[in-house]
Every structure is written in C-alpha cells, then in structure tokens.
Amino acid sequence: MSAATDLIVRYYDALGRRDIEAVMAVMHPEISFQDFLEGGELAGVSAVRAFHQRMFDTLAPDFDLITVSVQPDSRLRVEMQVATHDRMGHLWSDTRSYALFALVDGLIHGIELQAAA
To answer: Which of 21, 48, 22 is nearest to 111 (CA)?
Structure first.
C-alpha cells in the first residue's frame, strides 16, 4: 500500500471511529473542501474540525472503501459505499460515493465529492 493510500485509509478509519483528533491529524493546515452537510466551502483547520464534529454529532456514516486510484493530476480518487444512519440508528441512505483527494506534504489538502461515474 502506498503512503497516499495509507493516509486515505487512516482518514476513513478515523471517521468510522468518530475520532476527531485522528481525523485532524491527517489534515493539512491549509485544508479546504466542500461542506456537504450545509453547503459552501470550508477552509482551515478550525472550520474543518467544526464540520467533522457536526457530522459526528448528527450522523453515523459507515464508509466501506472499494478502490483508491491515482488520477493523472496526482489526486486520489476514492470509490466507497456509504451507509448513513441518524444517531438513533435509522438508515437515511446507502449509496456508492466518489471523492477526489488532493495531498500536500503527505496530508489531505482538499476533498472534492464527485458524481457517480
């Protein structure tokens, strides 16, 4: 497994454990990505920490990684199955999802959700 793939696996493992410190440990100080909970753009570690805390407080997503592949522009494309439950355990959705990760200095610098291919 490459270091980049290992980083993505660690990120999703931390999400699954709802471990905010482990999530933030893989984020670049200049992280930015889409706020897929409320819309808009998140920039910086404070905003990204608050986003993940909101997600952990309101949802219980389970991520099953299917593939991680390097794209021609060096970003990593992640294909995953995401089952999202509310905090009471009720299933909201179970769908295939895709994301592009930009890495800088061995950390996640950007995340872009993609439509199904």
So the answer is: 48
Task: Look at the pTM and tell me if it is higher than 0.85.
Answer: yes
Phi, psi of 111 (to 5 degrees): -130, 130
Domains within the chain, CATH numbers bracketed: 3-114 (3.10.450.50)
State the residue for tokens 């909970």: 37
Per-residue model confidence as pLDDT tens for the chain (117 residues): 699 999 999 999 999 999 999 999 999 999 999 998 888 999 999 999 999 999 999 888 889 999 999 999 999 999 999 888 777 778 888 889 999 999 999 999 999 988 665
Q: Where are the beta strands (DSSP E) in the chain?
A: 27-34, 41-43, 59-70, 76-86, 91-104, 107-114
Query: At 15, which amino acid appears?
Result: L
How does 10-32 read in b/e, with b if 16+ C-beta sit within 10 Å? Answer: ebbebbeebebeebeebbbeebb
